[in-house]
Every structure is written in C-alpha cells, then in structure tokens.
Amino acid sequence: MKALKERILRDGKCFEGGILKVDNFINHQMDPILMKSMAVEFVRRFAGADFNKVMTIEASGIAPAIMVGYLLELPVVFAKKKKPSTMENMLTTSVYSFTKGTTYTVCVSKDYLCPGDKVLFIDDFLANGNAAKGVIDLVRQAGAELVGMGFLIEKAFQHGGDSLREQGVHVESLAVIESLDNCQISLRD
Ligand code: 5GP
Q1: Where does xanthine bind (predicted)?
Q2: N or C: which end of the chain has fewer CB within 10 A?
C-alpha cells in the first residue's frame, strides 16, 4: 500500500536487531486518516472472505482492528496480555516476544471467542509469527475458525509470514520489509 510505504520511509526508524519503530503514526502517536485508509485496504483484500468477528491482541492491534470492525459493522475482540482476575471462561496461550525477550500469557474469554465464530485477525506487525501462532491456538481452543490474518507491516526477513502461508493461512500485509540491514529500510515493491 503506497501511502503506508511512503510513511514508513519518511517516519520509520530502524533499531538494532531488526526492529522498526513507527511510533510517529502507529505505535505511540497514531494517524487516524492513514489508519482508516489501511482498514479500507484490508476490507478490499478480504472482500471474498466470510467472517463475523475481527480479532487482535492489545495494544497496538486495537486501532487498525477497530477501524476494520467499524467499516464492516462487526464486533472486535482483543486478546489480553494480562490475565484479569475477574475474567471467567478463559482461554489462554503463551507467546514469545522477541522484541521484549520474554514469554507472556495471552487470554480471551470464551464469551467473546465462541465455537463457530469466523475470525479475521488484524495486527500491527508480523515478524517471527509467534503472536499469530498464539492467536491460531486460541481460535482452535475456542472451536472457532480463522479466516485470515492482516498485518500493517510484515518483516519478511523474519519469516513468520512464510510459515503461516505454508500452513494455508490467508495472510495479507500492507507493507513488506525485505531487510533492515545496516539500518536501511528496504521495502518490497
Ligand atoms: P512476532 O510475534 O510475529 O514475532 O512479532 C509480532 C509482534 O511483535 C507485534 O504484535 C509487535 O507488537 C511486535 N513487533 C515485532 N517486530 C516489531 C518491530 O519491528 N517494531 C515494532 N514496533 N513492533 C514489533
């Protein structure tokens, strides 16, 4: 998606270890106009898919996911990273975060991820695919069906996308980064 790629090149910042910081428009300050355009693009790319729910993981996936849910008038459920003491009927899974170097628990209530639900997952980044694998596990535990996964930015050099596509998951990424070597942002055409 042209507007996103241009914004990444303009405002994205590279960090050691293959991390791209997009705090200027996604992860801290947010650009709602761009966010809406990205949601419109997801709606276009998943137009042929049949789903009744949009899912994401807190926190940075919530903004794009709610834009998609708003456009399609569908509920949006976000998996939580901390286990609330009050949550009942909980499904949990573990996710390794390479950016933080820790494993954390992700949970969702069975009240909001239900048997028969057809789920479109939306998130900010796809790197190694650990968060995505956690979501696949939650969807499986719930007896729901994963219809597709949409990411704002995929870092192709970490191969999470390859693994998901090999499993037959419909993955759409709005900008694909080939490399961040030498702190140079190299985008796929
Ligand atoms: P994965 O689980 O696919 O390895 O990583 C995906 C998650 O890690 C995303 O939800 C995102 O929060 C975080 N992440 C991975 N790579 C980056 C990055 O380069 N920049 C930022 N800001 N977050 C990232």
Answers
A1: 20, 27, 155
A2: C
Amino acid identity of residue 41, one-letter, is E
Q: Is 131 annotated as ligand-binding?
A: yes
pTM of the complete model beyond 0.95: yes
DSSP character for 73? T
CA distance 132 to 65: 14
* Closest atom of ligand 1 relative to the 96 alpha carbon: 2
**Helices 32-45, 2-11: crossing angle, 10 deg rounding:** 140
Phi, psi at residue 154, to the nearest 5°?
A: -110, 130
Are residues 17 and 9 in contact, defined by beta-carbon separation less than 8 angstroms? no
Which has the closest alpha carbon to 173: 181, 162, 185?
162
| Residues 172/152, Cβ–Cβ less than 8 Å | no
Cα(181)–Cα(185) distance, integer angstroms? 8
| 182 assigned ligand-binding residue | no
CATH class, 2-187 region: alpha beta
Pairing of the two strands 76-79 and 90-97? unpaired
Domain boundaries, the chain: 2-187
Question: Which amino acid makes up residue 7?
Answer: R
Distance 20 CA to ligand 1 centre (A): 9
Give the C-alpha separation, 15 to 129, whole Å. Answer: 19
